[in-house]
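so my prof wants the structure for this chain in the tokens format not the other one, which i didnt know existed until like an hour ago. anyway here's the sequence
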Amino acid sequence: MGMAESEYRKDEKINGVIYNMSPMPHFRHGIINSNIHALIKHKLRDSLCLVFMENLDFRYQPDKNDDYVCPDIMVVCDRNHLRGSFYNGVPRFVAETLSPSTAKRDKTEKKDIYERAGVEEYWIVSPQGSIEIYYLKEGKYVLESNLILQDDREDEEYNVDQEIALKAFPHVKMTLGEIFEGVD
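here's what i got, hopefully its the right format
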């Protein structure tokens, strides 16, 4: 094991409890995150907003404690809240790609954290080809759509070209095919 590999450690601190996020997730997780990150980054290049991928902690209640999560994808627009390795404002968008070790937390505790923090759009992406999109309505997440990739051209439900736009950034559009490109 090389020096860098042995030193890699990523964790999250929720309600004072530290959760170790190793081992590294499956390569499909990284491909999906990279696809979403690249698609958003390209479309936000003339904006003040920034998109981060697995590399910026989100301190979701900085006035109360130093708890943090590390979203797979996070769009932030208020640069005044960037501090070193963390962000303590309200992200405009968060996506989590499920992996076996984090799926339950992504769908429960982290979903609640993003909802309470006021993140207006939250995606839960499954490497198997589905996306749950939640919009914040009156302080609670409502499932806006649940998309399942159907990439068999013979199937009447074929939807590789179906476009999704980010709620806060309607010009940031991507297709299901682009999100899951290279996963198989």
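also thought this was worth mentioning. The longest strand covers residues 140-148.
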